[in-house]
Write a structure and sequence with these properties.
119 residues; PadR family transcriptional regulator; 6 helices; 3 strands; WH-like_DNA-bd_sf; Arc Repressor Mutant, subunit A; mainly alpha; three-stranded antiparallel beta sheet
Length: 119
């Protein structure tokens, strides 16, 4: 079992998240962002418009679960940042995906090549 999977409560939380929420966590793994920047990243990924009514309730849910921290940049703009639990949730999800994907040495090399390309 990886360190990410051993964090109390993190795995259970990860199972309760939607794919959309997982994608928000992945986006925030890169750097803290304000809501509209997150929205643009999601729209680029989905290649379609993401409504505020979908984004902000999901961000609020992630904040309530302590996976994302919310802070005020100015009177009108909030910044969102991945918490340690959020980071562990992303790692746990990756670990689960890799456990399903890597079934032989050739696939392990393919994944290793992907990781090396991003170093």
């Amino acid at each position: 079992m990886s360190e990410a999977q051993s964090v109390p409560g993190t795995q259970q939380t990860a199972h309760d998240l939607t794919a959309f929420q997982h994608n928000i966590l992945v986006i925030l793994a890169e750097e803290p962002m304000y809501g509209l920047a997150i929205k643009r990243e999601l729209e680029s990924y989905y290649d379609t418009e993401v409504n505020h009514g979908r984004l902000y309730p999901n961000l609020d849910d992630l904040v309530e679960r302590d996976l994302v921290a919310k802070s005020e940049l100015d009177k009108r703009t909030n910044q969102y940042e991945l918490t340690d639990d959020g980071y562990e949730t992303v790692l746990g999800q990756l670990n689960w995906v890799f456990s399903k994907l890597i079934t032989d040495e050739e696939r392990a090399e393919d994944v290793g090549d992907l990781v090396a390309a991003h170093d």
